[in-house]
Design goal:
Layout: H1 6-29, H2 36-39, H3 58-75, H4 77-82, H5 84-89, H6 94-117
Length: 124
Amino acid sequence: MLENYFPVLIFILVGLAFGCAPILFGWLIAPNRPDAEKLSPFECGFAPFEDARMKFDVRYYLIAILFILFDLEIAFLFPWASIFKEIVNAEAVRLFGFIEMLVFLGILVIGYVYAWAKGALDWE
């Protein structure tokens, strides 16, 4: 049974090697000559003049959360699309699969319209 997981172990080890090797090689090979200018904060070529902890507008976070929310909901369409042929070919679940996806899309559209009506998508 464990021999079935050997390719997965090899895949993980190769992935770790591809991820860690460039970092390790860069750390070993790159010259390390720090000075005051290299260690100073860099902000687009100008000396930093603001606090790094400046406040963002709440609308930025709202747009980001709405994007993540709708992006994740859209991701639930992919499993349905991948078995769409099986849903259409099976007489017993054809109507159920279609109605279930219509309900899901309806909830998604209602949430989108609600966010739009509340002005959450407006950027002034």
